[in-house]
Crp/Fnr family transcriptional regulator (Sulfuriferula plumbiphila), 244 residues
Amino acid sequence: MTTPHHPRQNHLLAALPDAEFERLLPHLGLVPMPLAEVLYESGAQLQYVYFPTSAIVSLQYVMENGSSAEIAGVGNEGVVGISLFMGGDTTPSRAIVHTAGYGYRLKAKLLLEEFNRIGGRRAGVLQHLLLRYTQALMTQTSQTAVCNRHHSVDQQLCRWLLLTLDRLPSNELTITQELIASMLGVRREGVTEAAGKLQRDGLIRYSRGHIEVLDRAGLESRVCECYSVVKIEIKRLLTDVAAV
C-alpha cells in the first residue's frame, strides 16, 4: 500500500512545534519531483523553497564549460533554497533532482515572513531550526570538497551511496553512471570501474541505471570518514531542535 503524503515526512517540518507548523500547513503544496528536474539554475532568483519528502535533490556547482560537480545533497532531512533566508535571492549553485519522488513547495515570501516572525513564547523556532540545518549543510559541502580531493573514486562512490540510502525507504535507487559521474566530478569510466569492484565483491547489483545495495555493512567498511562526519553532524544539529 502506498504511504499517504504528509509534510511531516520532512524532518525539518516534523521538528516544528504545532503552532508554527499549522501556520505553514495551508501554504505547503505537494509537488512531484521527477528525475533530472531543475528546481533552479545558478544565478536565478528564488521564488520557492522545497522540503523534499521522498525525492533527493543534488546541489551542483556548474563551471563555465558546462561541467559540474555535486557540492551537497538534500533529502527528507532538509530544505532546498537556504540562500533565501541567508540574505540573498540567488545562489551560484544549480538544484537538480537526482532521485525522483515528492516534496512540499512553499513561496519564498511566506518562508521569509515566518523566518523573521517576532513575538510569542516560541518565537524564532523556525529560524533557529533553519540556521542549524544550514550549518549541517555547510559541513556536508566542506566534507564533500575534502573527499573529492583526498579520497579514491571507490570511497567517494561508497559515501554517495550511503548518504543516498539514508534518505530512502529502501536499498534500491534508479540512477545512471553518467549522472553519478557528473555529481562526483569524475569521468564515467572511473565510476564504471568503482561500481564494478563493488559488484564483483557482492556489495551492490547494478543493471541499466538501477542500483541495489546488497551489503550495506560492506559499504560502511570501505567508505572514508567523510560519511560518518556528515551523518553525525546532521543528527547532532537536528535532534530535538524544536525543544531548544
The first strand starts at residue 29 and ends at 33. The first helix runs from residue 11 to 15.
